[in-house]
């Protein structure tokens, strides 16, 4: 029964009882005994703990008007275009699968694969549904969603209200009048259609949560972009969602709606896909004409998935659908750092060239806000599929104590972070319409995002901002950095050889004509690319003449400036708040100053693009992470795939760190993923001992069968790490090479390692706050 106690069933009008054949006064009711034969009585109410228990149930619906006894069952019209409460027996009723779209909200899906929808006062049938993705409309609400609650007139029965129109389901269709909202009973049924969904291809339940010494059991992915599809204007630069209220058909549809036939409008895929070398002439054609000259990829999504997901080769398609993430969780992934990500230049190029549309502004922080909002929606969605609030395996956490408790309970802890170039809208070149980025503003913005749950932060990403120069990555990013600021690039050979290097420090600069080091980091820019998002081709014209100038090859080169005063303010306040400082995108001089500050404060940090800075990150109590398994077997010895892991563990031991080594896949972040050992894209040396099925998780509590993508069977051996759900295969493949379980244990201690760094940051933050 429902826990909520509401008003009992009552008449809709005083002293009157409305029967099926007439409305009679109470005094005459019993003289019309013949009318009793026309009444269809309601079945007994469904006994459930709450409406959340309805998820994935199979039911028939009947409805009475408030105050009446004569019920009717919901049936489909003869033409199949509508539904109505006209049936007199449950055998006539349409059988409906209740699929949760959120907590307390459901899709009603019949045996003919139609949805019950309502736009106005009708109950219609729809075979296909529009969505915010298909319409490129962030405000769209589907007419197929129904909010279910206990009826105001009978606490043991139900009321249904359209999420789109806020109209109640009634005997006549829908109504705005709560007094006319139908009192609905659900009766269990059989033979409902299975709602479309992907599978985990796993059996068993998570049992192991700790090691014998009490440390947490589980892997960490320290660098993830689950909601990358909401970055870059949300318009398909990254296609496909990790979940969708309307299900997998809406989450992972054919990508031609954004990328065009043969993917020819996927400009960023042409730039970042693995195996493609950046070609400015190719991109220039795409920017001018809104499409590329050659096919980029096949576009089919659910249920065929002809060419994507493919994290190894295809950079612009979702690879962290929640069912794939669940498969990784079942294989031991227990902590994920979800970085909200975006890049306005990439969005502006795609939109300004008319290759794609945006759902909202290309501004970085607009996308960050949407991702922070949406991760909570995703948490609720997984709760809804699991039976109610708090029951899902996916839990957003805001403290190391919460993370430790969640992981110990056998669930996945999710930490919120931000990785974007124009953090807090603090541009290196101030823009009209934005607040002045000063110390007070930075402190207020950091407090705001801390209140939203953000605990990890990159001070800078690819491009120069008010905190620091960008990371100095070469190639396409040299061009993009100029577009972001209007300044020429700022590379110099005057580098600090004693300081760690991340992305800068390389021996050449590809576009030498774009490099003109400036003495003053903050100065008036010589170029203006403010029109990039509306007229990309015309805005890019001033660069054409200099792109053919020769590369600079007499490096190493690094950024000409370092951490700016506001960057020091940001890092100091992050330390006081016990936040996790991400070092991986700081350029040479900036990372040198960051280490000075961290060491002076005895404060840890993380480096989640693999670089441990010769062990220096472990010296301060931090960590570095990447994929620590090699890709290929060695022809002359067993266990060579474990060489990177062994080397990292030795470095950690030398610097007094905790022996836990995590991953930082950077999925949905244009970073690629491990490829296969076998097949055309496999290793150059002979390989043996491929993955076979079934196999057990490292903990032994879950069994995995060969992964399916609806109509597509995935072969890890010849395709590699196509999505996050292949994490169990990645571990199993290392075992097949002879990497020992004792060595692999360090990977499953990585969640403990990350939580320990966070605990140390929180403890040091408390000390620093008390002694400013």
Report the average pLDDT across residues: 93
The share of residues in extended strands comes to 15-25%
Portion in helices:
10-25%
Low-confidence parts lasting 5 or more residues at pLDDT below 50? 1-34
State Rg: 29 Å
Shape descriptor reads: globular
The counted number of beta strands is 29
Terminal Cα span: 56 Å
Q: What count of helical segments does DSSP give?
A: 20
Characterization of this structure:
- By secondary structure, the protein is α+β, with helices and mostly antiparallel strands.
- The protein is 25% helix and 15% strand.
Task: Provide a compact summary of the structure.
Helices cover 25% and strands 15% of the residues.
Keywords:
772 residues; six-stranded parallel sheet; Trefoil (Acidic Fibroblast Growth Factor, subunit A); alpha+beta
Topology, pairings included?
Layout: E1 16-18, E2 23-25, E3 58-64, E4 72-76, E5 83-87, E6 96-102, E7 105-110, E8 115-117, E9 124-126, H1 132-135, E10 145-150, E11 158-162, E12 168-170, E13 173-175, E14 183-188, E15 202-204, E16 219-224, H2 248-251, H3 256-259, H4 267-272, H5 280-289, H6 322-330, E17 333-342, H7 344-352, H8 364-386, E18 394-396, H9 400-408, E19 412-420, H10 439-451, E20 454-457, H11 476-485, E21 491-492, H12 536-540, E22 558-559, H13 565-576, E23 580-581, H14 588-601, E24 606-607, H15 616-619, E25 623-624, H16 643-654, E26 695-696, E27 702-704, E28 708-709, E29 712-713, H17 716-719, H18 727-736, H19 741-748, H20 750-770
Parallel strand pairs: 16-17, 17-19, 18-19, 19-20, 20-23, 24-25
Antiparallel strand pairs: 1-2, 3-4, 3-6, 3-14, 4-5, 6-7, 7-10, 8-9, 10-11, 12-13, 15-27, 21-22, 26-27, 28-29
Helix pairs in contact: 9-20, 10-13
């Amino acid at each position: 029964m429902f826990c909520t106690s509401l008003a009992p069933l009552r008449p809709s009008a005083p002293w009157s009882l409305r029967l099926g054949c007439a409305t009679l006064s109470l005094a005459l009711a019993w003289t019309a005994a013949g009318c009793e034969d026309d009444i269809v009585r309601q079945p007994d109410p469904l006994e459930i703990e709450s409406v959340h228990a309805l998820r994935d149930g199979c039911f028939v619906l009947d409805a009475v008007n408030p105050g009446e006894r004569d019920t009717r069952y919901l049936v489909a019209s003869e033409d199949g275009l509508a539904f109505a409460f006209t049936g007199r027996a449950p055998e006539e009723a349409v059988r409906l699968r209740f699929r949760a779209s959120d907590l307390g909200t459901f899709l009603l899906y019949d045996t003919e694969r139609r949805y019950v929808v309502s736009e106005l006062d009708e109950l219609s049938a729809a075979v296909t549904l529009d969505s915010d993705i298909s319409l490129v409309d962030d405000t769209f609400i589907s007419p197929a969603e129904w909010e279910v609650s206990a009826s105001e007139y009978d606490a043991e029965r139900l009321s249904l209200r359209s999420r789109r129109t806020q109209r109640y389901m009634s005997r006549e269709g829908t109504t705005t009048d709560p007094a006319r909202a139908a009192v609905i009973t659900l009766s269990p049924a059989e033979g409902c259609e299975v709602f479309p969904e992907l599978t985990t291809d796993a059996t068993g339940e998570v049992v192991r949560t700790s090691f014998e010494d009490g440390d947490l059991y589980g892997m960490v992915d320290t660098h993830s972009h689950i909601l990358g599809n909401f970055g870059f204007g949300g318009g398909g630069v990254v296609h496909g969602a990790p979940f969708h209220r309307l299900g997998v058909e809406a989450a992972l549809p054919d990508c031609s709606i954004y990328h065009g036939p043969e993917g020819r409008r996927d400009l960023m895929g042409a730039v970042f896909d693995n195996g493609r070398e950046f070609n400015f002439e190719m991109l220039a054609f795409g920017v001018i004409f809104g499409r590329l000259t050659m096919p980029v990829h096949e576009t089919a999504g659910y249920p065929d998935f002809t060419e994507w997901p493919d994290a190894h080769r295809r950079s612009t398609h979702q690879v962290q659908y929640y069912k794939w993430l669940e498969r990784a969780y079942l294989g031991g992934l227990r902590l994920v750092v979800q970085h909200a990500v975006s890049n306005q230049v990439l969005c502006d190029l795609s939109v300004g060239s008319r290759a794609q549309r945006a759902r909202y502004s290309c501004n970085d922080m607009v996308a960050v806000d949407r991702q922070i909002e949406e991760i909570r929606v995703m948490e609720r969605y997984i709760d809804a599929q699991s039976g109610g609030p708090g029951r899902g395996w996916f839990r957003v956490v805001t403290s190391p104590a919460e993370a430790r408790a969640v992981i110990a309970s056998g669930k996945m802890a999710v930490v919120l972070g931000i990785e974007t170039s124009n953090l807090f809208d603090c541009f290196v070149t101030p823009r009209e319409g934005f607040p002045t980025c000063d110390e007070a503003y930075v402190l207020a913005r950091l407090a705001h995002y801390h209140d939203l749950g953000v605990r990890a932060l990159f001070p800078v990403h690819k491009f120069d901002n008010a905190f620091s120069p960008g990371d100095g990555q070469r190639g396409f990013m040299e061009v993009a950095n100029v577009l972001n600021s209007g300044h020429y690039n700022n590379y110099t050979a005057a580098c600090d050889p004693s300081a760690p290097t991340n992305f800068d420090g390389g021996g050449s600069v590809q576009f030498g004509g774009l490099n003109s080091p400036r003495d003053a980091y903050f100065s008036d820019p010589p170029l203006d690319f403010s029109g990039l998002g509306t007229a990309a081709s015309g805005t890019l014209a001033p660069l054409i003449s200099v792109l053919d100038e020769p590369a600079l090859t007499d490096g190493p080169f690094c950024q000409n400036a370092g951490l700016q005063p506001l960057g020091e303010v940001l890092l100091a306040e992050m330390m006081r708040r016990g936040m996790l400082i991400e070092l991986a995108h700081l350029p040479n001089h900036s990372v040198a100053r960051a280490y000075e500050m961290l060491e002076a404060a005895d404060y840890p940090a993380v480096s989640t693009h693999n670089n441990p800075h010769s062990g220096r990150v472990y010296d301060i109590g931090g960590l570095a992470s990447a994929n620590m398994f090699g890709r290929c077997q060695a022809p002359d010895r067993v266990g060579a795939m474990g060489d990177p892991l062994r080397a990292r563990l030795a470095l950690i031991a030398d610097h007094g760190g905790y022996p836990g080594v995590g991953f930082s896949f950077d999925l949905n972040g244009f970073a690629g993923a491990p490829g296969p050992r076998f097949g055309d894209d496999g290793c150059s040396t002979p390989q043996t001992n491929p993955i076979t099925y079934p196999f057990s998780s490292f903990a032994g509590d879950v069994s995995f069968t060969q992964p399916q993508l609806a109509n597509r069977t995935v072969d890890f051996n010849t395709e590699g790490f196509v999505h996050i759900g292949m994490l169990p295969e990645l571990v199993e493949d290392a075992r097949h090479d002879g990497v020992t379980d004792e060595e692999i244990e360090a990977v499953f201690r990585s969640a403990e390692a990350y939580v320990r760094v966070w605990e140390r940051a929180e403890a040091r933050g408390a000390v620093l706050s008390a002694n400013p």
